[in-house]
Amino acid sequence: MNTQTHKQTDNKMKRKDLVGIGIGPFNLSIAALCHDIPELDVAFFDQKKDFCWHPGMMLPNTYLQTSFLKDLVTAVNPQSPFSFLSYLVSKKRFYAFLNNERPAISRHEYNDYLQWVSRQIEYLHFNQGIESVDFKDDHFEVALADSGEVVAANNLCLGTGKRPHIPQAVNHLHDQYSCFHAINMANLPRDFSGKRVTVIGGGQSGAEIFLHLLQGQDGMPAEINWISRRSNFLPMDETCFTNEWFSPNYIDSFFPLPSTTKHDIVGEQKLASDGISGTTLQAIYETLYEKQVAGENQHYRLCPNRDLIAAQKDKGYRLEAHNKFDGSHEEFRSDVIILATGFENVIPSYLESMKDRLQITQDQQFILNRDYSIEWDGPSQNKIYAVNAGRYSHGISEPQMSLMCWRSATIVNDLLGRDIFDLNDNCSFVEWGDSRPVSALEKRLTA
Ligand SMILES: Cc1cc2nc3c(=O)[nH]c(=O)nc-3n(C[C@H](O)[C@H](O)[C@H](O)COP(=O)(O)OP(=O)(O)OC[C@H]3O[C@@H](n4cnc5c(N)ncnc54)[C@H](O)[C@@H]3O)c2cc1C
């Protein structure tokens, strides 16, 4: 719901236990868990006019890469009225959903679920961007962008996501209509008929956009290039032992490791989170095959192993790439460039006046404690939690939704100072570090 006047007055008068900045899925999960805890007075703010999950990437036939059971609440509070199953029942689609037997739900349906939750929580305030945050005496002051109102809070949770990454080689060309980041694609007027289109990026978004173009969903392009740095169009590893990296136990083992070790491990695990889902790869291959059978002479090039090194405007665009497979230098001509090049961390501008008080690494990562609060020089009872910020502290699951509600519950428990959510999920079959309790047998043998 949008903020109403009486709520603003409320905010002015009463200091909140927690103010959440940004309402993406991650802070929405925290908000949903707070719902049944009357002792917590919380408020969440977002600049968007209502909840919408990455609207610019809401292309048809795109699917969640995570089980619907890993929703906002279920893993820590299956009785919550905000579970995906409650949503299905309330929408009268429970049996149809089961009959549909899809391995993954569509992003449209997931967005609809998130919107359904967001409409039921009264302390979410949309159309309220945050301009700045300051710390005065014993509390934070959060300034809203348009109204000028200031909300006081004992604790904050930063949930404003990441910034689209624009590769350096095309930075000077980046514009709204012909060289743009994939995050905006669905928001743009699109007609690619007869155009040469180049997709850069070999992850899930790049694959979805390549398929979308190949199927001519926005007009049939004359030529499609798909360029990736990776050695091939590589699948996401969704097998069971890899999925153990997305478990609470793994975080317990990972968190205490030295920072350089963590960086190496996360680098090695890339395909567990950033690979392409098997169904998308299959759909691309099938589409290519059927085009071959039909004798269609559409031009497309699938080019892995290429590093984009330069780009200029030249009757459209001229892109230059280094082919790491055979060492050659190649050129691609294009009218449109779509950058499916991922996201990067930035320190949000609303933290400008507090930046010097926060512990931040050279590569612009917050230094996080185990409870997801940022290390800072202020009082320890005033915490600044950050979600989607701990890939190199808590592990590969951080930017993903797999452990979203477990992390939310960790934060809420910490906020309350007691374990309202039981987070002792000890079922893991892999010993990551030497964290075993010494068994009675070992004690006897070594005595
Ligand atoms: C297309 C796409 C598909 C994905 N699919 C999956 C998937 O299937 N499975 C999975 O595990 N992960 C997936 N992810 C990764 C991740 O789960 C999502 O990016 C997720 O949305 C991250 O949530 P968030 O809450 O951190 O940030 P976001 O969803 O980016 O939300 C941040 C919010 O902060 C708001 N905001 C920003 N600045 C301000 C400000 N100054 N004041 C107020 N509000 C502000 C924004 O308006 C926005 O609503 C996907 C990512 C993308 C891009």
UniProtKB/TrEMBL annotation:
It is an enzyme of class 1 (oxidoreductase). The keyword NADP applies. The keyword Plastid does not apply. Its cofactor is FAD. InterPro entries: FAD/NAD-bd_sf, Lys/Orn_oxygenase. Pfam families: Lys_Orn_oxgnase. Its EC number is 1.14.13.59. Belongs to the lysine N(6)-hydroxylase/L-ornithine N(5)-oxygenase family. This is L-lysine 6-monooxygenase (NADPH). Transmembrane segments: none annotated. GO terms for molecular function: L-lysine 6-monooxygenase (NADPH) activity. Keywords: FAD, Flavoprotein, Monooxygenase, NADP, Oxidoreductase. Pathway: Siderophore biosynthesis.
